[in-house]
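Hi C.,

You asked whether I'd gotten around to modeling the 76-residue construct. I have! Everything is below, sequence then structure, no commentary in between.
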Amino acid sequence: MEALNINDFSNHKIEDADVIKRILGGEKELYEILVKRNNQRLYRVIRSYLKDESEIEDVMQNSYIKAYSKLYQFNL
């Protein structure tokens, strides 16, 4: 299995589904790859509803926590 550098998230050729499989297999630190890949998009969506930066940060954090706890439900 290829070693992944979590600091080089944008250049990974590995698909999200494969990252998720590896996270579920115990490589929990790889969740950071998914966070970094999706952070700007999530921010823009939340920003379209909320204007207060601290509220946006709270919603983003809660979203990532919930997504992580439900990762096993992802349709691979």
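If it helps when you're writing up: The chain is about 55% helix and 0% strand.

Thanks,
B.
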